[in-house]
Amino acid sequence: MNLFTLFISAMLINNIILSKFLGMCPFMGVSTKMDSAVGMGLAVIFVIFGASILSWLLYYFVLVPLGLEYMELICFILLIAAFVQFVEMFIKKTSPALYKQLGIYLPLITTNCAVLYVAMDNITQEYNLIETIVNSIAVPAGFMLMLCIFATMRERLNANDVPKAFQGNPIAFVVAAIMAIAFSSLAGLV
Amino acid sequence: MSENKEKKQGFFSQLLTQNPVFGLYLGICSTLAITTTINNALGMGIAVVFVLVLSNILVSCVRNITPEDIHIPVYIVIIATLVTIAGMLIQAFTPSLYQALGAFIDLIVVNCIILGRAEAFASKNTVGASAKDGLMMGISYTLGLLAMSLIRQILGTGVLSLDNPFNNTQIFALRLLPEGFEIPLFTTPTGAFLTFACIAAAIAAYNNSLNEEKPIKKGAK
What we know:
The structure holds two protein chains of two kinds. By secondary structure, chain A is mainly alpha-helical. Chain A has one domain. In chain A, 75% of the residues lie in helices and 0% in strands. Chain A contains nine helices and no strands. The radius of gyration of chain A is 18 Å and the shape is globular. Chain A starts with a helix and ends in a 6-residue tail after the last helix. The mean pLDDT of chain A is 83. By secondary structure, chain B is mainly alpha-helical. Chain B is built from eight helices and two strands; from the N terminus they run H-H-H-H-H-H-H-E-E-H. The two termini of chain B are 29 Å apart. The N terminus of chain B is likely disordered. At the A-B interface, helix 2, helix 4, helix 7 and helix 9 of A face helix 2, helix 4 and helix 8 of B.
């Protein structure tokens, strides 16, 4: 598969939030302010990129030779949890300022379904290492793009008069629905 | 006063206001993704009940011997093992369901409801209470899925149908909307978001009418 096509379709057309519904929890929780949206987006890009490549290596160099493919779920989730923990400790040591900014979001990433999904998807789609790297950058990039667009919209939304029952999350879902219509028209790109 | 009200609310309204999906906004990912048909919703619901009850029981069993520092990894390994078992059972006995749910079976591992209940309830309570809590949470999650899929399937395809996943025979199919009047939008992601927004707003409105003085419950995560 053409790498550029893969990148565009993973980032925009099969956008992880609007067409696969993954990572909804941080999407709803963090998208109220632009600053936190950017922080969360960067943290997710880094974790998905690192964790997917490590899982790919783990799968093809450890699990396949040992015939333990059915253990992938348990191994991947442990690897992701360990990786997030490691990143947290690393950032804490090297850059306390960045740690303060990202601090609360890092542990949350372990339970972000997008991370596990990308790691498993690279295996089920039988991507090679280069395609895995491209896919693992494109998917979280799409996530961050969505998060930032959505954060700007929600900041505007605060100034509007929303019916009482729709206040908070329900109106955010209506906004997401309209965004999904807009993004579905990109399907003709590839 | 609030205690009286809670007693009056009863089982049904507790299912509505304390619903993990629409009240607390947990486990939204799978709710939005797999509720295109009732079949998928039921299959997913049963899988989640299975994992949730067993994980609550196991977490409750090991709660006194788990060191505080590593309790999250321990819980995740327990949950991942149970999800692997559930996935293998679904693949072996109902291959069509396995195809339809796809990656979302594996993603039960990161469903916030399961880890959330393990952390908030099972790690502090006895085995029996934890099993009951898992069952209740699982059932209200399944009801949330069913509500979503009913609306989406009827509006999106016009047909209400149920298949037997074990041998792929149709149990019943009922055309509720005449041909040409279905709204295919509701089977797409857009429809999922819209349906969810409307149900969540309806429950918030019900919540508000129950006690006006209480502020609206904001999403936990």
